[in-house]
Specification:
Pfam families: Ribonuc_red_2_N, Ribonuc_red_lgC, TSCPD
GO molecular function: cobalamin binding; cobalt ion binding; nucleotide binding; ribonucleoside-diphosphate reductase activity, thioredoxin disulfide as acceptor
Organism: Allocatelliglobosispora scoriae
Radius of gyration: 30 Å
Largest sheet: 10 strands, mixed
Strand content: 15-25%
Catalytic activity: a 2'-deoxyribonucleoside 5'-diphosphate + [thioredoxin]-disulfide + H2O = a ribonucleoside 5'-diphosphate + [thioredoxin]-dithiol
CATH architecture of one domain: Alpha-Beta Barrel
Cofactor: adenosylcob(III)alamin
Shape: globular
Length: 936
């Protein structure tokens, strides 16, 4: 195959297999130089503590990593993926050992099963994979790192789909199979619609229990098993068809439990996620989804009736109003984020194996959709590695990288172990793969494209179809060398039809700009070549691509964004060598500004504004038409819900499976908003959708909860204990007659004034006076009154930080440039005054939390970034040598964002290290230790 990086020798031999093998060309490596010899290695100590109580939960000294790997990636790989007991000689200590353990296993299996033409091709394959993993170009999913090359079963798949029939024996098998999957570090999904409804009869004459009752047992089982030996809690999905007679009970299941959580919380029980009392609540270990079909959605659209069908004979058990049922789905999702929705006919219209059976279920995050009792191993590419300095996309390197990764993924099926014989048989027969990517949001921002824009969506669709087209072309080449998948013959017509649909969807992309146009052109070539070859040789894999959440492996690759997600926020939390942390602006921001035409001085001023405010609004010199480029998932300029939905719709036709992504909604969103999103998802051809409304779940540590005193009062009431109420009042602490003070003259816009402050001799600010006009004027009187109010508040113990948080960023005239070198621009006089007070009276650590720094501190940060030097102020130093360092109580980007925004974000606490996790697809991942809430 000219220009694709590998070629295949073809010629028939025995029963379905072919002779020859793949010829592998070098893409990243240099002949005669091992990848490990091209990088500088260094030793590091990995000591990880629980952020909340300081206890050490992991300690391994002297591990070896490349110098360019971040502390975060080092910590996560060392604690999660190194095998062997800590403190023993068998424990892995170098990234070389980890990569060799995996890559050499893949090479050996490839040679054994005839994938390579020569031993030299096998060696090049090994070196290319090692180079890409070493340089964070891609990563396999977590089970590969957990299991491959160890004495444990070689489970490589992260995603499993199970099945259950209408019998007690089958239901017990379901419980057992789920447990085995969780133990291996993976997640599973299942459709319960074959189980007869609670209104149907048993053969004995009694009434059936119904699927919802059996969900209780499975939920309890999942709650006791930590996936992968305590790497994360179990991840599971349960699905019910919309025409099942128990659908209304299924829809309301988790919403009812949420009501129970509220009641228990108000009674004083610990109902936070991970709290000691949350285990008493049912159905909390699974994602729930309703599987809707076109018939139901058309009935919703037309306002018609819809039949619920018995499981035994398909007879009509009940008839409901379709719109009312659809509203119940949306209402439950509004109340507790469950259920999500899956579009059955859309899913099966893109199914390559309909002769084998319908697709009825998905994995927990909804990206893997295939036949029952099957599995999928995943790998994801780091898109930022393919963004050239001139803003173009490295098409050739991307194509060759996809070829190598797909080849490796297919090889893994040859040696992999699976939890059940049914899954073993189906995975070996259909060889489902899930190549995907991370860092899409960072790529778009760095390219100067808004995530929510036609340009952003067209480039995302182009890259996705290039990836899938190349993967299927390589799959056809593999079929010509080692044979098509066993189930291909009976599904050949359907598989070819779906390939033509993908190629047609590629042709339908309307590229915006030369980069997208070039990528679409290359993708069309891949589809044409691959489909022509596939029609002759077949394909090696029933499916090739998905868009997974890339939680832990995203951090392993030092990605700014996960999966198909936009950037979380413009400010970022960075761990430093030797301990400590600092606040930086995401590195995609300066690159984006330069691509948009801003020169270095402008970039510096805009970055200073982002550090101080956490957003780009009113950034000096930044054009308002460029604001959308920097829109994020959270913050003052967050991407709209439909912006997320439209991105999913753009890339969906370009992938085999589906998309792990949650559409986030503000707390103010209505049930009608969710109905609209779910309905538009069907219209736009998306396969699955899940939403999350801010603060909709009580079991989140950041939802609005009662104060400790309120909880104590609620508990006392519940126990009917009556106690005497003691009321505590603040006491005013007056300043001494003689106190230290200072006066600062200032100018904001065209207004001049004076700020006089007085402080306690040993305890901070206690009094302010403001003068901005002649004595007796209205403005002078208002300023005097304001000064007295603030002064009394300070003397009654109101922290200065509280006033700073309330009055900074307040916008009104006069505003603009100031004569203060530390505060170049102010949104108002109040904004300037309280920034000046913060600089003069708050300690460095507290100012770092809210992003207020002196000019010398900001300059030091920029110099350090340019020189690659990191400053950690352990002792008092001149401000010029210090950088903004995040205070100890902030342990993740989510917590940093809360500090900058001044409001909470819905995210659970990490069970391992106690920090706030960040969204990753439809799950959460911890930046501190790599633990996830259920995704690989």
């Amino acid at each position: 195959m000219s220009g694709t990086g590998t070629t295949a020798s073809r010629g028939r031999t025995r029963s379905g297999a072919k002779d020859g093998g793949l010829h592998i060309e070098r893409v990243w490596t240099t002949d005669g130089v091992h990848p490990y010899d091209e990088v500088a290695w260094e030793r590091r100590d990995v000591v990880m503590t629980n952020w909340r109580d300081g206890s050490v939960n992991f300690d391994q000294r002297g591990v070896e990593f490349p110098s360019f790997w971040s502390v975060n990636a080092t910590n996560i790989v060392t604690s999660k993926y190194f095998r062997g007991a800590l403190g023993t000689p068998e424990r892995e200590w170098s990234l070389r050992e980890l990569i060799d353990r995996v890559v050499k296993t893949y090479r050996a299996a490839g040679e054994k099963h005839g994938y390579f033409a020569t031993a030299d091709d096998a060696e090049i394959f090994e070196h290319e994979l090692a180079w890409m993993l070493l340089h964070q170009v891609f990563s396999f999913n977590s089970p590969v790192w957990f299991n491959v090359g160890t004495t444990s079963p070689q489970q490589v798949s992260a995603c499993f789909i199970l099945s259950v029939d209408d019998s007690v024996d089958s239901i017990m098998d379901w419980y057992k199979e789920e447990g085995l999957i969780f133990k291996g570090g993976s997640g599973s999904g299942i459709n319960l619609s074959r189980i007869r409804a609670s209104r149907e009869l048993l053969s004995s004459g009694g009434t059936a229990s119904g699927p919802v009752s059996f969900m209780r047992g499975a939920d309890a089982s999942a709650g006791t098993i930590k996936s992968g030996g305590a790497t994360r809690r179990a991840a599971k999905m349960v699905i019910l068809d919309v025409d099942h007679p128990d659908i209304e009970e299924f829809i309301s299941t988790k919403a009812r439990e949420e009501d129970k959580i509220r009641a228990l919380r108000d009674a004083g029980f610990d109902m936070d996620l991970g709290g000691k009392d949350i285990v008493s609540v049912q159905y909390q270990n699974a994602n729930n989804s309703v599987r809707v079909n076109d018939e139901f959605m058309r009935a919703v659209e037309a306002g018609e009736k819809f039949n619920l069908l018995g499981r035994l004979d398909g007879s009509v058990v009940d008839t409901v109003d379709a719109k009312e049922l659809f509203r119940k789905i949306a209402k439950a999702a509004w109340e507790c984020a469950d259920p999500g929705i899956q579009y059955d006919d859309t899913i099966n219209d893109w199914h390559t194996n309909p002769e084998t059976g319908r697709i009825t279920a998905s994995n927990p995050c909804s990206e893997y959709m295939s036949i029952d009792d099957s599995s999928c191993n995943l790998a994801s590419l780091n898109l930022m590695k393919f963004l050239a300095d001139d803003g173009s996309f490295e098409i050739s390197q991307f194509v060759k990288s996809v070829e190598l990764v797909i080849t490796a993924m297919d090889i893994s099926i040859c040696f992999a172990d699976f939890p059940t014989q049914k899954i073993t048989d189906n995975t070996r027969a259909y060889r489902q793969l899930g190549i995907g990517y991370a860092n899409l949001g960072a790529l778009l921002m760095a390219s100067g494209m808004p995530y929510d824009s036609e340009a952003g969506r067209s480039l995302a669709a182009a890259i996705t179809t290039l990836m899938t087209g190349t993967a299927y072309r390589r799959s056809a080449e593999l079929a010509s060398v080692v044979g098509a998948y066993d189930g291909y013959a009976r599904n050949a017509d359907a598989h070819q039809r779906v390939m033509r649909k993908h190629a047609s969807a590629c042709d339908d992309i309307q590229p915006h700009g030369p980069v997208a146009a070039a990528v679409v052109k290359a993708a069309a070539k891949q589809w044409k070549t691959g489909n022509a070859l596939g029609e002759k040789a077949g394909w090696r894999n029933a499916q090739a691509s998905v868009l997974a959440p890339t939680g832990t492996i995203g951090f392993m690759m030092d990605c700014d964004t996960t999966g198909v997600e936009p950037d979380l926020a413009l400010v970022k939390f960075k761990k430093l060598v030797g301990g400590g942390s600092m606040q930086i602006v995401n590195q995609t921001v300066p690159r984006a500004l330069r691509n948009l035409g801003y020169h270095d001085e402008q970039v510096e001023v805009i970055i200073e504004h982002i550090v101080a405010n956490g957003h780009v609004v009113d950034a000096p010199g930044l054009k308002t038409e460029h604001y959308p480029v920097f829109d994020c998932a959270m913050g003052d300029r967050s991407i709209s819900a439909m912006g997320h939905v439209l991105m999913m719709a753009a890339v969906q036709p370009a992938i085999s499976g589906a998309i792990s992504k949650t559409v986030n909604l503000p707390e103010s969103a209505t049930i009608e908003d969710i109905e609209r999103i779910y309905f538009e998802g069907w219209k736009l051809g998306i396969k699955a959708l899940a939403i999350y409304r801010d603060n909709c779940k009580v079991g989140q540590p950041l939802s609005i909860a009662k104060t400790p005193s309120e909880n104590a009062a609620a508990t006392a009431l519940a126990e009917k204990i009556v106690e005497k109420v003691v009321e505590y009042r603040p006491v005013r602490k007056r300043l001494p007659k003689k106190r230290p003070g200072q006066t600062v003259s200032f100018s904001v816009g065209d207004a001049d004034g004076y700020l006089t402050t007085s402080s306690y001799p040993d305890d901070g600010l206690g009094e302010i006076f403001l003068k901005m006009s002649k004595q007796g004027s209205t403005l002078a009187g208002v300023m005097d009154a304001f000064s007295v109010a603030i002064s009394i508040g300070l003397q009654y113990g109101v922290p200065l930080e509280t006033f700073v948080g309330k009055f900074t960023n307040m916008r009104f005239e006069p505003a603009g440039m100031t004569d203060d070198p530390d505060i170049r621009i102010a949104n108002s006089v109040m904004d300037y005054i309280f920034r000046r007070l913060a600089l003069d009276y708050l300690p460095y650590e507290r100012r770092a939390e809210i992003g207020i720094f002196t000019a010398s501190e900001r300059a030091a940060q920029l110099r350090a970034e340019e020189e690659g030097v990191e400053y950690v102020p352990t002792t008092p130093e001149p401000a010029a040598k210090q950088l903004p360092v995040v205070p100890q109580r902030v342990g993740s980007s989510t917590e940093l964002l809360e500090a900058v925004m001044g409001k909470a974000a819905d995210a659970p606490l990490c069970f391992t290290c106690g920090t706030k996790m960040r969204p990753a697809g439809s799950c959460y991942v911890c930046e501190g230790c790599g633990s996830t809430s259920g995704c690989s």
